[in-house]
Fold this protein.
Amino acid sequence: MAKQRRSLGGKVVAITGGARGIGKTTAAALVAKGCRVALGDLDHELAEKAAAQLGGGTIALPLDVTDRASIEGFLDETERQLGPLDVLVNNAGVMPVTPLVEESDDSIRRQLDINLYGVIVGTQLAIARMRSRRSGHVVNVASSAGKAGVPGIATYSATKHAVVGFTEAVRAEHRDDGIDFSYVMPITVNTQLIEGLEDQRGVKRIEPEDVAAEIVDALETGKVDVYVPKQLRASVVVGTMLPRRAREAMARLMGIDKVMTEVDPQTRQAYEERVAASEPQRDAV
């Protein structure tokens, strides 16, 4: 018998990096399910525009995920305006593309602060709100790069591996507290993160709507490890069973080793400049 899906109607959801891309698209999918949604983003003006477009009582709040006080303030204000927090989607993230030996210290620290610190602190603060009610769900957006080492984005891969391991660990810590935890691992998604990247024959791009649909599914079913697309799970499992040389040869054949190294610098320039424009520990997208 199929597991009964949970109703999301009336749930209070906070989404980091909610002004654009996966965050905004996920918000739209949840508003359609009857959720009350708060968008948190460093670009508060863009978040306000997104909230107005989404309707459904969606609110926009300023958020810097590299600052504990800002994260706490975001969650406090979400609860003040919408009610007790039911769901936190830790979505904010950045992905500079560069060989590791050429990567600046600012870039390394920025990714650690946004992609990992923000997830850890957001999860910690959400648990503190949810545990007393023995109810809640934390969704951490990782990446398929959290299951593989991808040339050109070594630091990004490291942060996403960390998000996967962190979510598994914290889930085990709170298995008796009534809180669900999920981590989402999409392949390349058509957002600003992949601007200027060349298509590879073995790497299919997906849309933000695909990721949003799987996040909704995880919230309705309690699924823990969420691959997008679903077929990616089989590829990862099969890959772990192959000898290293065979696995690496297959990756080269599919062009996976080039997906983040063959880049059009001019097309990607606007994204890279936006990411690098703010000081380390003061950026979120």
The first helix runs from residue 21 to 32. The chain has nine helices and seven strands. The first strand starts at residue 12 and ends at 16.
